[in-house]
Amino acid sequence: MILSYKFRLYPNKEQEQQMLRTLEACRWIYNYFLARINEAEQIPHKYELQKEIPKLRREREELKGTYARVLYQPLYQLYSNLKALSALKKKGKKVGRLRFKGNWFKTFTYNQQGFKLINTGRRSDKLHLSKIGDIPIRISRRIDGKIKQVTIKKYNSGKWFAIFTVEQENKEATKKERRSCRAVGIDVGIKHLLTDSDGNQVENPRLYKKILKRIKIEQRRLSKKQRGSSNYEKQRIKLARKYEKLTNQRDDFLHKLSRYYVDKYDVICVEELNIGRMVKVRPLAQKILDASWGKFLHYLSYKAERAGKTVVRVDPRGTSRGLSYKNPMRDYISACRILMRGWGSPDCLIEGRLLLRTISYQEVVSGQIFSMKQEALDE
């Protein structure tokens, strides 16, 4: 299993300048080889172009200060993008040509070599990057597995992060009898983010809607600044940090919610949703994107695989058949149908009186939802 760990870096001014030069070198390599491919009648093999990198590094002064193996990654990225475009074209999609990279080139990668994580025993450890130096890094949790590569990314807010790609051994699925497995069905929605077959409804926090007013204010202020000025850059960073805060809040919420279900249940049944098609429905698009169903299901899947649990995806057709939108039990009944379709469990109560429990956003992010789990296990 391949996992990613993201930690913040705190480079000094000299290190940051070298990191910016490395980004520029990688951007130049990407654009140089894209131009070569565009000029060629037939796309050359990747390894033919790869042989040119040592020569370019000797000839161009701005490439000499960059670790050699880092310069190969933009070429791999370029061919990966070409492969993705080709796959879309085969599916009948209309695709254009790859664009040259501008200032939005934000990452460079050390693959296998050229980096080392140094444990200092203090609050901040050190990440050694060849040609850059030892950069303070805040390791917030232990890294389990073998580190295969590290990607350095600069965010629009000006912050730097290191993303470690780690290889872990897959855990064997938990071997339990079907009767002893704790199973749950989950129905995602807009009014409530999800409803499960145990009668829990999780509040949809609508984080984007809450912060939208502030974002509009900051966007208007940015539009009044002269592009390229120092005041424009300060305002751009302020706006970027608003978006970054929104992303962090959403990720924190979804991580904790998915962790709750993976810790409590052995089998989790969900719908196999085509979210890409659903967001094409204009009135619902922003609401679906704000709810982040896809990200929640992704977190749920990889956490379950890592813990040896099972996520069962079922056909969503008919799970709400015959149920009115005004029916307060609609989502609960759908969750029960999902559970029975995915696991065949008759444990939930589809018909009859049931008091649904609403779990708030604050209960999830503050950890109160985990005390609910503990009470349930103690019974």
Order of helices and strands: EHHHHHEEEEEEEEEHHEHHHEHEHH
Helix content: 40-55%
Largest sheet: 6 strands, mixed
Query: Treating each run of at least 4 consecutive H or I residues as one helix, how many helices?
Result: 13
The Cα radius of gyration reads 25 Å
Describe the global form: globular
Distance, first to last CA: 34 Å
Domain unit count: 2
Low-confidence stretches: 373-379
Main sheet strand line-up? 12-11-8-9-10-13
Structural class, from secondary structure content? Answer: alpha+beta
What's the β-strand tally? 13
- Output mean pLDDT: 87
Question: What portion of the residues fall into strands of 2 or more residues?
Answer: 15-25%
Main attributes of the structure:
19% strand, alpha+beta, 4-stranded antiparallel beta sheet, 13 helices, globular, 2 domains
Summary, kept brief:
The chain is α+β, with helices and mostly antiparallel strands.
Q: Topology of this protein?
A:
Blueprint: E1 2-9, H1 13-39, H2 46-50, H3 53-59, H4 61-64, H5 73-90, E2 107-111, E3 115-118, E4 125-129, E5 133-137, E6 146-154, E7 160-167, E8 183-188, E9 192-196, E10 200-203, H6 207-223, H7 230-264, E11 267-271, H8 275-278, H9 282-291, H10 293-307, E12 310-314, H11 330-343, E13 357-359, H12 361-365, H13 368-378
Parallel strand pairs: 8-11, 10-13, 11-12
Antiparallel strand pairs: 1-7, 2-6, 3-4, 4-5, 6-7, 8-9, 9-10
Helix pairs in contact: 1-5, 6-7, 7-10, 7-13
